[in-house]
Design goal:
Distance between the termini: 57 Å
Number of strands: 11
Strand content: 15-25%
Strand order of the largest sheet: 1-2-6-3-5-4
Radius of gyration: 24 Å
């Protein structure tokens, strides 16, 4: 091997997505199982339609998911945690605006024992007052600390301006909502959206059929329907909105707009455009506002896709005295993309970066399952990733300039400055 010669660059042409086996369990619950794993690790993710958009009282969804293993008549939260620890497992909880999930990790030899501890605790959860009060105090303290941060204030106001406060995606909890929350609220949400509703399960691991039967038995205790949710329209407030924070030495800035989801014909191109603008370390926003002007440590942009909406945004934090200069430079970069062709070498660099990221994010069975979840929850074709890769190869500078003119019009932007 001649180490003085750089290896040949091989560009990704396709992604050979491995699809999981689909198994129907009791009560029409679906389990997706990826068995081909080279080690002893097992991950079972249980995902419910129980995100914050389903709640009728603020904070209920997140607290319910956080306290699913908080205890029952025979076991405390500590006992449940110690039993899972004994078998070498651990459990993670996660809740966002659309879904709530519990992920159970362990080794193949102990995964059944870990799951039995989880199953017993989940099915008989009583949300003990002591555990509820402790979690409430922790969350309240965290909320008060976050409320002093301009980034936190900016993000909350941006969501409200982007979606409208009558849209669940635009709502945020206030201090008074913590005082209004009760354990009875959690019990009611748990009964409706966990016990009486069906989840979707994603299993990665070389387990035996006996474990599948144990999961099947657990689903016999659940409901068989998917919660009904009526999609709410977004009502954006375009233009500048200020959030005053006295004595702040920095300003947080968010600029963005409602965009298109993964089914739209412009989505692939908008992702390429966003990467050039602020989607990687060598992006134009980083080169201009961080490296050249020195206004910030970091600045980025993204296209975020929720179940019912998608949006594009730029975000950063800067010293207060350069707030207006930073906003000016953000629009300079947006206008450049609208009016100037992207140089061939820059476009090639971004294409190579994105193709490399595709491969990195698809390495291993767990990553493959995450890729599949994206397809399943967004109701995309299984050719989605290969379509994306082909779109990256084909897109031209002219295509991107036309997209920039379509999506980067300042008149449609929501601007929020907190500080």
């Amino acid at each position: 091997m001649n180490r003085n010669t750089a290896p040949e660059i091989v560009k990704a042409k396709q992604l050979d997505l491995v699809l999981p086996q689909e198994i129907k369990l009791e009560n029409d619950v679906t389990l997706f199982w990826m068995k081909e794993v080279k080690d002893e690790s097992v991950k079972l993710e249980i995902e419910w339609y129980a995100g914050t958009k389903y709640q009728t009282k603020k904070l209920v969804a997140g607290f319910t998911n956080k306290l699913l293993l908080s205890g029952n008549a025979t076991k405390s939260a500590r006992t449940i945690s110690e039993e899972i620890d004994f078998y070498g497992g651990f459990v993670q909880d996660e809740a966002d605006k659309d879904h709530a999930a519990i992920s159970i990790y362990g080794l193949r030899e102990n995964i059944s024992a870990i799951f039995r501890v989880f199953s017993d605790a989940f099915l008989s959860c009583e949300f003990p007052q002591k555990e509820f009060d402790e979690e409430l105090n922790i969350a309240l303290s965290r909320f008060k600390i976050d409320s002093e941060k301009v980034k936190f204030l900016c993000q909350r106001k941006f969501n409200a301006c982007l979606f409208g406060t009558d849209n669940p995606y635009g709502q945020a909890a206030e201090l008074s909502d913590f005082n209004a929350l009760t354990r009875e609220d959690l019990l009611a949400f748990y009964t409706s959206f966990y016990l009486n509703a069906k989840p979707v399960l994603f299993l990665v691991g070389d387990v035996d059929e006996k474990f599948i039967d144990e999961i099947r038995a657990w689903t016999s205790h659940l409901g068989k329907t998917k919660p009904v949710y009526e999609k709410k329209p977004a009502h954006s407030v375009t233009g500048r909105t200020y959030v005053e924070k006295k004595d702040a030495i920095q300003s947080a800035i968010r600029i963005g707009r409602i965009a298109v989801n993964k089914k739209h014909e412009d989505y692939f191109g908008l992702q390429v455009l966003d990467t050039i603008l602020g989607g990687y370390f060598g992006s134009r926003l980083m080169a201009n506002i961080r490296e050249d002007k020195g206004y910030t440590y970091g600045i980025g942009s993204a296209v975020a896709v929720l179940e019912d909406q998608a949006y594009f945004f730029v975000s950063t934090e800067v010293a207060k005295e350069v707030t207006e200069a930073t906003i000016h430079e953000i629009y300079v970069e947006l206008d450049r993309l609208k009016n100037e062709p992207i140089p061939a070498d820059e476009l090639e660099r971004v294409k190579n970066y994105m193709l490399g990221e595709f491969l990195r994010q698809s390495d291993g069975a767990a990553a493959m399952m995450d890729s599949f979840k994206n397809i399943w929850f967004n109701e995309l074709n299984v050719s989605y990733y290969n379509d994306f890769i082909q779109a990256i190869h084909k897109i031209t500078s002219d295509d991107l300039m036309n997209l920039a003119k379509k999506y980067f019009d300042r008149a449609h932007m929501v601007e929020v400055v907190a500080g």
